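Lecture 7 notes: from sequence to structure.
We start with the chain below.
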Amino acid sequence: MLKALLSLTRPANLVTAIADVLAGMAIAGYFLLPEPAAAPVGWLALATVGLYGGGVVFNDVFDAELDAIERPERPIPSGVVQKQTAVLLGIGLLFVGIAASFLVNQTAGFLAIGITVASLVYDRFGKHHSWLGPVNMGLCRGLNLLLGVSILPEEVIPWIWVGVVPIAYIAAITMISRGEVHGGSPVTLRVAGLLYALVIGCVAALAQRQQQLGTALPFLLLFGYYIFPPLWRAVKDPVGRNIGLAVKAGVLSLIVMNAAWVAAFASFPLAFLVFCLLPLSRLMAKVFAVT
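Predicted structure tokens for the same chain:
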């Protein structure tokens, strides 16, 4: 029962959400302060776990009937977890996420509310729209990056535009994921590849602007190494299994992209620590589903 409840939260993905907020903190310049306090970092890490976990729990709640046909092994359609129990879990996680954010500051709290609304809109409505769904899902990640930036509230407005980068990346992954069950379109996969390349170019340009391209480049190269080969295999043979592997690689590799952000705005040692979250996420992905 406990494992089933945990699987609803996609534990491997929760690690990527923590990497998001750490990247946001680096963009804000928090780690360059003389004595950055640890407590806000901890509260925002807890907040993103609650927000992401609650959002994906409600994804399974709203998809219970469809999953009974397409993915009957999932906890709710299989009967291991009752839908009402999942609803309570989702509400509890979202409450923790919002409360922890307000303990940091009001800006973080309101961003947490925005993430909650965006994720629930996606779960209930957005995923059913061909173009709005991917953008909606990307918005959740973009706001999550800004949640990290909000550790210094005055930095949110100057850096609000960087939220477009994860929006583009997650929109690409969401486009791909629609072919996990019945197979996908090579055209869609190629468009996703172009968005991947655009994202790498944007992060590289920002790193150059910060005069840290050399520091960020190893992580950007690793990022490309992790995401493009599975995508190319899916382009050549767009069956459900290959697309699922491409989606899994794209989600887990968010950690590497976030390490590149940290390298560009903070330091190589801190970026390497973020990168070290990848083995943890991959280990969890062997036990719990990513999508």
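Points to note: Residues 17 and 121 are 19 Å apart (CA to CA). Residues 2-287 form a domain with the Tetracycline Repressor; domain 2 fold (CATH 1.10.357.140).
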